[in-house]
Design a protein that fits this description.
Number of strands: 16
Structural class: alpha/beta
Largest sheet: 3 strands, mixed
Strand content: 15-25%
Strand order of the largest sheet: 1-2-3
Number of helices: 17
Radius of gyration: 25 Å
Distance between the termini: 34 Å
Shape: flat
Helix content: 25-40%
């Protein structure tokens, strides 16, 4: 295990992080769509409202109990795809998120800024997706002379008078007593933040980053998939927790899976939610990820009214609630392509691009996969065979990467021609 995880603490990763603003469970789905568009990993933490008793000081246990779960874009699209929501979209958009979010109190944990990074990684490997870290004034507990900022720039440690204190005991026992904690002010550390930090420490992790994901055992073969000809809505009935993604596959004659796209929170992060919900409820999985042409003749695609207030641009600008009739097409969801698909007939104008799955090879290095995740703001990368671009092998997610970089190195074998007697003789000489 690299010493960088032993000698760094959580506070080193929170420098420059913005203050967390709680998103309450009483907020509407429409507000959640706006918040998710500005969030990391395509999801937001949902909270219960604080107690109104002003005399009660909230401790970490009370705060942990107020955390409900993490709401992502796929949860919202799946909710809006329900028949009752499709019939009354305005009512659906005004629904409190408490009726949509899946309660899971384990996904977030509060930690002290002085918590060792290795301990934080162990939490994330066990399923924790967010770390709640108290904001502090003049954080001086940085374990190196410099620490990485959230935006990727480097900041020299403001306290260099204490000299080097890179020993395990000093770092493991370090607490927030060296800083001034701001009451009720927190920042949220995500797994994406951790991967961003690791990217800046590749030299300290050598040779692991340049090793293939296959040799590191980072490929998870237990992925979820759905046949392209199956109804897309079936994907929401067996959603995995991490990563929240279902591969859309076609089976080759020899029985192997060929990936053509995926249905995931990452792909739906900044989509047109109402159009995506309609497509999820009415199209096959293949049509959902590949798109359908505007003048489709297989089925009659109805006109539907889309509230422009839920469009990504209008939400970002705080737009109003004017409505306009809109014909459904793959452009509504944001999927573009000019490549014909054998599944839906040769020569038909298909739209693909944003729907193309993010893939890598079994021989890809761990550093390359991490770079893919960060550049695409994705939570997972699908792994294909080395000699084929789309024969699916497995998936690599955040937890798989964290497990790979923290894995204990194998012990070096003792040479067979070395005996204990010879070893003792060498010591005597």
């Amino acid at each position: 295990m690299a010493s960088v995880f032993l000698y760094h603490v959580v506070g080193d990763l929170t420098v420059g992080k913005p203050e967390m603003v709680e998103f309450l469970e009483t907020e509407t789905v429409e507000s959640a769509i706006r918040a998710i568009g500005e969030s990391t990993e395509g999801g937001i933490a949902v909270w219960k409202r604080k107690s109104q008793h002003g005399a009660v000081i909230e401790n970490w246990e009370m705060r942990q109990q107020r955390f409900v779960g993490i709401l992502n874009s796929l949860d919202i699209v799946a909710f809006l795809a329900r028949s009752e929501c499709l019939e009354d979209r305005d009512k659906a958009m005004k629904t409190p998120v408490s009726q949509v979010v899946l309660p899971n109190n384990f996904l977030l944990r509060q930690v002290d800024p002085g918590t060792r990074l290795i301990d934080a990684l162990e939490m994330m490997k066990q399923g924790v997706k967010r770390l709640l870290v108290p904001k502090s004034l003049g954080w001086k507990g940085m374990s190196k002379r410099f620490s990485i900022l959230y935006n990727g720039k480097w900041l020299k440690n403001i306290d260099t008078s204490g000299g080097s204190s890179n020993n395990l005991n000093a770092n493991s026992n370090r607490t927030s007593s060296s800083t001034t904690i701001i009451r009720d002010k927190f920042c949220c550390l995500s797994r994406e933040d951790v991967i961003r930090f690791i990217i800046g420490c590749l030299g300290a992790l050598a040779p692991v980053p340049l090793s293939s994901i296959s040799s590191l055992g980072a490929i998870n073969p237990n992925y979820y998939s759905i046949e392209a000809s199956s109804p897309a809505i079936e994907a929401t009935r067996k959603l995995p927790e991490d990563p929240t993604a279902v591969a859309v596959v076609e089976h080759s004659p020899d029985g192997r899976c060929k990936i053509i796209g995926d249905i995931s929170a990452t792909k739906l992060w900044k989509c047109d939610y109402l159009a995506a919900a309609w497509a999820l409820a009415n199209l096959s999985a293949g049509q959902f990820v590949m798109g359908v042409e505007d003048d489709v003749t297989l089925r009659s695609l109805p006109d539907f009214t889309v509230n422009s207030a839920v469009g990504n641009n209008n939400l970002a600008n705080g737009g109003g609630g004017s409505t306009r009739p809109k014909k459904f097409s793959s452009r509504s969801i944001g999927f573009f392509s000019t490549t014909p698909s054998p599944t839906f007939g040769v020569g038909r104008s298909m739209y693909r691009g944003r729907s193309a799955p993010l893939t890598c090879k079994v021989t890809s290095s761990l550093a390359a996969v991490m770079a893919q995740l960060l550049s695409h703001r994705a939570t997972h990368v699908w792994v294909t065979e080395d000699e084929s671009d789309d024969l699916l092998v497995g998936v690599v997610g955040y937890a798989d990467i964290l497990a790979a970089v923290t894995k204990q190195p194998a012990a070096a074998p003792i040479p067979a021609n070395r005996s204990f007697e010879a070893y003792g003789n060498e010591n005597q000489t």
